[in-house]
Amino acid sequence: MAAAAGPYKEMLEVVNACAARIRWRLRPASKRHLLNDIMFLCTGLRPVVLVDYGGTMPQLQENLCGLLYIARQFKLCKVRSVQFGQKGIPYLNTYDDRTIRYPDPLIKANDTIKIDL
User: 11, 28, 82, 96: least surrounded by Cβ within 10 Å?
Assistant: First the structure.
């Protein structure tokens, strides 16, 4: 019996599928250079594909890493419901299964909130 596919193996399948789609859309002259000039960043958010166009890869990589660092500091979540629990403690549920106790009283269902990670 084979081992179950983990997140790393699933990520590699997604990366290979993205590379195949990119190669399919390029001109034949560009396909030869693609093997050396493509880089995949696995960020935890989604796979990011960088294709080098004339030596600008390091600049793009620095800009992208800076943006991803900022994006990892918070998350936007949509509020599913705001309720009262035991002993009248207010809490809210989000669509990504987070529970937050003592939310701001102005927050209602279907609002989008920013959560610091």
Answer: 28
